[in-house]
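Dear Dr. K.,

Following up on our conversation at the group meeting, I've run the structure prediction for Thioredoxin-like fold domain-containing protein from Paraoerskovia sediminicola. I'm pasting the input sequence below exactly as I used it, so you can double-check it against your construct before we proceed with anything downstream. Let me know if the numbering doesn't match what you have in your notebook.
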Amino acid sequence: MNQQNLSKAQRREAAIAEAARVRDAQAARDRRVRIITISALVVALAVVVAIVVFIMNEGDKPALDRVDAPATATADAGIPLGESGAAGTTNEGAVEVAVYLDYMCPVCGQFEELNGETLDSLRESGDITEVLHPVSILDRMSSGARFSTRAAAAAAFVADRAPEAMADFNDAMFVNQPEENTPGYTDDQIADIAVAAGVPDDVAEGIRNGDADSAFSGWVEAGTELASDDDALKNPQSGGFGTPTITIDGERWDGNWSEDGALEAAVTAAQG
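The predicted C-alpha cells came back this morning:
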C-alpha cells in the first residue's frame, strides 16, 4: 500500500508493525545463532572429554599394552624358543628358562659363551623352553648410538618376520658382540649379521633401513621398564636389575652359571 495514501495514524501503526517484524526476525536469528553456538560448544566439549578419557585410559595401561609387539612374543616381553629354535614355539611341559639379556652386555656374552650350547641342547631335547628377553639398559655404553635398543629391536623384528631364524640370530649377535664404549654396529651391519644367521634378505632389509627400530623400539623400552620395575628380578645384593638375569620357571636363579654343569643341574632340580 502506498504510504502516501495512509493517514498519519495508519503510517504510525505500519511503522510499529514493521519494527515488531524486524525485532521478531532478529530474535529468531539470535536464537538460531545461540542454538548453533551451544550445539558446537557441546560437540567440542564432548570431543575434549573423549580425548581426555582416551588419554587417561591410555595412561592407565601398562607400557607394553601401548606398543606393538612381535606376533611371537609373550605378554611379559619374552620370545619363547622351543625345540626348533623358532620364535613363538614352546616345548610342552618343559621347564622354562628365561634369559634377560642386553646385546651390548659383556657379561651376557660370557654367559652365552659358557651356557649357550647347554641351553641349545636342553631346548632341542625338549627339556626346556628357552625364553629370550632382549632389553636395553646399556645404550649409554654405545657412544650415543643406541646400540642396545636397536639390536634388541632387530631381534624383535626377526622374531616377528622370520621366527625360524631367531635362535641362530641371537647366537650370531653374541658371537659378533661389539665392545662397550664403542658405537656398536650400525643397522646395516646388524642386517649383515642377520643374513649370515639365515634371516631372509627381505627381513634383513627391514633392519637395514630402520624399519625394525621404528616398529619395535617401543616394545624393547616397555619390556626393559617392566623388567627393571620387577622386584622379583632384582639382584638381592645390589637391589637393582641387571643383565644377564636368569629365571627358572619364573623364579630368579642366582646359581653360579660360570660353574660347569650348574645351570643344567638347576634345570634337573626344577624337573623334580
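Two things stood out to me. Residues 96 and 250 are 7 Å apart (CA to CA). Strands lie at 79-81, 95-101, 128-134, 245-248, 251-252.

Best regards,
J.T.
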